Amino acid sequence: MTMLGVPLWTVVASAALYLAVAAAAMEFAWHRGLDALTEAGAHRLDLYAASLKSELGRYEILPAIAARQDSIKTLLAASPDARRALLPAVDGYLEAVNADAGSVAVDVIDLNGDVIAASNWNRPVSFVGTNVAYRPYFTDSLASGSGRFFGIGTNTGQPGLYFASAVRGGQKVLGATAVKISVDPLESAWRVPNEAAMVVDGNGVVVISTVPAWKFTALAPIAAHKQEQIQASRQYAGRKVDKLGYERLDDWRNGAWFARLPDWSHPGRERRYLVMSRSAPQAGDAIMVALDLSAARRQQQLAFAFVTGAFLIAGLYALYAVQRRRVIVERLKAQDALQRANDRLEATVLQRTAALQQEIDERVLTEQKLRDSQQELVHAGKLAVLGQMAAGLTHEINQPLVAIRTLCDNARTFFERGQSAQALANLERVGRLVENMAQLTAELKAFARKPEANTVPVSLADALAHARLMVDARIRDEQVRLDIDIAPDAIVAAEPGRLQQVIVNLLGNALDALAGREAPRIRIGASRTDDPARVTFFIADNGPGIDPHVLAHLFEPFVTTKPRGHGLGLGLAITSRIIEGFGARIAAVNLEGGGAQFTIEFVAANGGSIDSE
Ligand code: ADP
To answer: Where are its TM segments located (predicted)?
Structure first.
């Protein structure tokens, strides 16, 4: 199972690793943050302790110095009446000291606890006439020589720090001097962001605090007897001391601990702070700082963000690498496939080329064979023609030769017997046979000779008339009806002698075909056609018509249906060669009513003298 091409276990393992690293980093950052906070807190505590010591030290000595003043001793030792005269000088002194020291007030208290002189003697709210017998700093100073406490002024309602010192006249305690200082400057000097600083007195009550709302609240519940004491001393001017809402939680390192406290930036809410404390210079007091954890939390968030970012980048890079690897693998596969296809193609091409070559070779071979067999055929054809011709010639020549020999033998016998008349008759027959043979060789010569193309205008009527001289005897003997219709203007381009030969040939064939037929008839016609350049001539008979086997090859040499000795099959071959020589055309058809018709299309000869032999 995969996710974006990455195995699921890798994703799960990465997520687990991320969670573990993030948790560890956050823990580490948290600790680092808290350590930084405690370090800063420790510095601040040192600083506050030092400032408290120097600040308080400045004033602690002040009542003791005043107590040594003779004018004050005298004032306290004097009777109430006598004091009135001494007061202005003392008040003036106190006023000047207070102004120099920058304290809130400096005063002189008699043994009853009544304030008899004060730096603020002439102010609307003056300490003069106030009784402080219940204040611990007074009682402590009478008892031990000096006293000190944080409290709220009963007249002014202002919180402050009181120091007191006993005034002695010899061994006798005459009264006390006291100074009240404000802690406001300390509070404002200590106020820094994300931190609360406070001083807790021996009662566990916050007396100095950078958070105003926390002032005069108790960290822990105050015991009943202690409450009574507080009430009696009017330490907090009769104010009810509330609980701060402080709860100490688990400890941290370096003396710091976590505590729940009211949120100073969001009143009404509580928050967890890191708290550290240090003993204040004065016994029973403690300086505490509450440190905001948001800096440490920010560090924690930063660590989380860093780890998350790092993992995201690493994850994206891993994803990129996986995808890239996949792309490369795909590309290699594609290349491989292409290579294979190429190889296949190449193999196919080679195979096809070989097949083609083989086919070409076969064709060449076949062509060669064909040519060979063609030549063989031609050769065979020639041989056949030669054979046919030889057979014809042999027969044509042998027959008269045999006859001649017989006739000669008989003639000799006739001569020996003295029958010279018979012997002469034989010799005449020999002469005719020799003539026949001469005619045969003449025919062969005519066929072999290239026809001449020296044509002249010849009248077909004249040519027919001349030809008829050769065949009229047969026509008459065989009682053939002759119908002739030759137009007078049937004048053609021809060679007169040859034209007669053509007509004699055609008439001879017609008479051969008509031999032994009922009502033999020959029609001869010649006329001009629509084409003025042509003259048509025909010879038709009512014989059996041309043998269909012969028709297609009619004008080829040695084609004959006649018995051996009656025809060589050269007549029409010679005729067509002569006709071609005239620039004319010859064709043969079988007529519907029976019989054959030979048609010659002559070239018409217009003008010029008519050659008539
Ligand atoms: P031959 O007369 O020696 O046979 P030809 O070339 O003159 O040679 O004639 C070839 C053949 O044509 C003849 O053998 C014959 O079969 C056929 N033929 C020619 N003229 C006619 C015709 N008028 N009627 C029928 N057959 C013909």
So the answer is: 302-322
Q: Which atom of ligand 1 is found nearest the CA of 543?
A: 24
Asked if residue 388 has pLDDT above 80, the reply is no
The more confident residue out of 153 and 368 is 368
Atom 3 (ligand 1) nearest CA = 567
CB-facing half-sphere around the CA of 161: CA atoms within 13 A: 26
For the Cβ of 107 lying below 6 angstroms from any atom of ligand 1, the answer is: no
- Per-residue pLDDT of 463-513, as tens digits, reads 999 999 889 999 999 999 999 999 999 999 999 988 998 999 999 999 999
Give the chain's mean pLDDT: 87
- Predicted confidence band of residue 608 (pLDDT cuts 50, 70, 90): very low
Q: Which residue has the tokens 């054979």?
A: 387
State which amino acid sits at residue 242.
D
Backbone angles phi, psi at 238, to 5 degrees: 75, 5
Binding site membership of 543 for ligand 1 (Cβ less than 6 Å): yes
Please give the sequence-ordered ranges of beta strands (E in DSSP) within 263-355, or none if there are none: 270-279, 286-292
Please list the alpha-helical segments (H only) found in 418-459. Answer: 420-448
Distance of CA 509 to the CA centre of its chain: 91
Other C-beta atoms closer than 10 Å to the C-beta of 212 total: 9
Picking from 439, 388, 442, 440, the residue whose alpha carbon sits closest to that of residue 553 is: 388
Q: What is the dihedral of CA 244, 247, 252, 253, to 10 degrees?
A: 50
C-alpha 576 chain-centroid distance? 81
CB 286 within 8 A of CB 278: yes
Q: Is the distance from the beta carbon of residue 571 to the nearest atom of ligand 1 less than 6 Å?
A: yes
Q: Tokens 């004699």 appear where?
A: 504
Q: Ligand 1 centre from 13 Cα, in Å?
A: 112
